[in-house]
Design brief:
365 residues; alpha/beta; Aspartate Aminotransferase, domain 2; Aspartate Aminotransferase, domain 1; 2 domains; seven-stranded mixed beta sheet; three-stranded antiparallel beta sheet; 14 strands; globular; binds 4'-deoxy-4'-aminopyridoxal-5'-phosphate; serine biosynthesis
Length: 365
C-alpha cells in the first residue's frame, strides 16, 4: 500500500486509524452481521452510533445544552440559503442581515442570501484581494441586524479569524466553519449558528454539521420546506429523511480519534506547529514562494502560495507528486499552489512538504 501525503482542500485526508477501523468494521459492525452502510437508520445500532457521535462532538466543542446539533446534507452551500430561509424577513420582522466578506465563500453566502431576503455587506476586503481581515473601523454593522454572517476560515484565500473573534454587534453571529471546525478550541456560545460541510476536517462528503441555538430555530415562514427548517429537523433528530448514515459513522470515529489525541487543545498545538513550519519555509525563501495574506490573518488550515516564477508551476506539481506530495495545485480562482493541512495531516507530512519546497527552491531559485 502506498499512501501519499494528501494536501487536497476537500474531500481531504482522513486519520489513518479511522480508515483502518472503517475497513475492519466494513462487513460486520460490532457483530451485527452487517456494515453500517447496510443498516436501517432507525434501528438500535445506528441510533447508538448517531447518539454517540453527537455526545462526543458536544464534549469536544463544549456545546451548551441550549444548542441543537443537526446532521444534515446539502453541504455548506445548502446552508447559504437555509440560513436566510430560517432567519430572515418573516423571521426578522423585515430586519436585514449583515454579511462580512473576506473571501470567495463568504461572498457566495452573501450572493445567495441576497436572493432570499434583505441583506447588507457590512465589510469587504475584496479591494485588497482578500489578503486580510477587516480592521475594526471598517465594519459597518447595523444595530438591528437579524444576524451577522462570516466565514471564519476562507479555504481558497487562506484567511482565518482568531478563535476569540469579537465583532461590535449584539446580533447573533452565524459562521461558516467548513474548513477549520475542530481544528482548535473556541467558545461556541459566542455564536448563534455554526455550520460546515464535513469533507475537510471532519469526515466524508455528504454530511453537513449545523449547531444552532434554540432561540434561532422555529422562526421559518410556514412555506419553508420541512427539510430546510431547523425546528423541524431538530424535532426529528436529524431524521426527517434518511440521514447520511455512513458519513455520520465515520465522523463519529473522527470525534473519538480527536478525544484520544487529547481533544481540541492538543490538536491545536499540532496544527500551530504544522502551520508555522510551512509559513516559515515560504517566508525564508527570499520571494521564491509568496503567501499574500497578512501574517496575523493567515490560516492554520489552508496555505495558498505562489511561485515568483509561474513558469515553474508545472514542474513544481510534477516533482511534488513524484515525491509523494499530492493535491498541491491551487484553486483555479487563485492560481498557484495551496497546501491544506487539516487535522488528519501529520507533522511528518508537512515536514516532507517543507523539505521538498526548500530543495526545489535551492535547485530552481
Ligand atoms: N464554505 C467553505 C469555507 C468552503 O471551503 C466550502 C467548500 N470548499 C463551502 C463553503 C462549500 O461547501 P460544500 O461543497 O460542502 O457545499
Amino acid at each position: 500500500m502506498a499512501r501519499v501525503w494528501n494536501f487536497s482542500a476537500g474531500p481531504a485526508v482522513l486519520p489513518e486509524p479511522v480508515l483502518e477501523q472503517v475497513r475492519d468494521e466494513l462487513l460486520d459492525w460490532h457483530g451485527t452481521g452487517m456494515g453500517v452502510m447496510e443498516m436501517s437508520h432507525r434501528g438500535k445500532a445506528f441510533t447508538g452510533i448517531i447518539e454517540a457521535a453527537e455526545a462526543d462532538l458536544r464534549a469536544l466543542l463544549g456545546v451548551p445544552a441550549n444548542y441543537r446539533v443537526l446532521f444534515l446534507q446539502g453541504g455548506a452551500t445548502q446552508q447559504f440559503s437555509q440560513i436566510p430561509l430560517n432567519l430572515l424577513d418573516g423571521a426578522s420582522d423585515g430586519r436585514a442581515a449583515d454579511y462580512v466578506v473576506t473571501g470567495t465563500w463568504s461572498k457566495k453566502a452573501l450572493t445567495e442570501a441576497q436572493r432570499l431576503g434583505r441583506v447588507r455587506c457590512a465589510a469587504s476586503t475584496e479591494a485588497d484581494a482578500f489578503s486580510r481581515l477587516p480592521e475594526a473601523a471598517e465594519y459597518d454593522l447595523s444595530a438591528d441586524a437579524a444576524y451577522v454572517h462570516l466565514c471564519t476560515n476562507e479555504t481558497i484565500h487562506g484567511v482565518e479569524f482568531p478563535a476569540d473573534v469579537v465583532l461590535p454587534t449584539a446580533a447573533p453571529l452565524v459562521a461558516d466553519m467548513s474548513s477549520h471546525l475542530l481544528s482548535r478550541p473556541f467558545d461556541v456560545s459566542r455564536f448563534g449558528l455554526i455550520y460546515g460541510g464535513a469533507q475537510k476536517n471532519i469526515g466524508p462528503a455528504g454530511l453537513t454539521l449545523v449547531l444552532v441555538r434554540d432561540d434561532l430555530t422555529g422562526r421559518a415562514a410556514p412555506q419553508v420546506p420541512g427539510l430546510q427548517n431547523y425546528a423541524v429537523e431538530a424535532a426529528n433528530g436529524s431524521m426527517l429523511n434518511t440521514p447520511p448514515t455512513f458519513a455520520i459513522y465515520v465522523a463519529g470515529l473522527v470525534f473519538r480519534w480527536l478525544q484520544e489525541l487529547g481533544g481540541l487543545s492538543a490538536i491545536a498545538r499540532i496544527n500551530a506547529d504544522k502551520a508555522s513550519a510551512l509559513y516559515a519555509c515560504i517566508d525564508r525563501s527570499a520571494g521564491f514562494y509568496r503567501n499574500p495574506v497578512q501574517p496575523a490573518c493567515r490560516s492554520q488550515m489552508n496555505v495558498p502560495f505562489r511561485l515568483a516564477d509561474e513558469n515553474l508551476n508545472a514542474s513544481f506539481l510534477a516533482e511534488s507528486e513524484a515525491a509523494g506530495l499530492f493535491g498541491l495545485k491551487g484553486h483555479k480562482s487563485f492560481g498557484g499552489m495551496r497546501a491544506s493541512i487539516y487535522n488528519a495531516m501529520p507533522l511528518a507530512g508537512v515536514s516532507a512538504l517543507v523539505e521538498f519546497m526548500d530543495d526545489f527552491a535551492r535547485r530552481r531559485g
